[in-house]
Design brief:
4-stranded mixed sheet, mainly beta, 0% helix, ChsH2_C
């Protein structure tokens, strides 16, 4: 077996805002499944608003609108 190294090419959609706009992410454990899911936190929520152990809700939010006018949606978290 051979190890190969390839350059990192991020697949779409990974738009970059100019200038960069910081955002919060959260690693939330799904209680029933025991999985930890990493996702963007709803716009307007600051990292300072988040505390360990707080209840979160899964939501969807627009990530960006592409060149064809299609709004790209992602899963994310909001404070419950």
């Amino acid at each position: 077996m051979e190890l190969h190294r390839k350059p990192l090419r991020t697949p779409p959609p990974y738009p970059a805002t100019d200038p960069f706009e910081p955002f919060a992410v959260a690693a939330v454990e799904l209680a029933d499944e025991g999985l930890i899911v990493l996702g963007k936190v709803a716009d307007g929520t600051l990292a300072a608003d988040l505390t360990i152990g707080m209840e979160m809700e899964l939501t969807t939010m627009p990530l960006f609108t592409d060149d064809k006018g299609v709004e790209r949606i992602v899963y994310g978290w909001r404070i419950a």
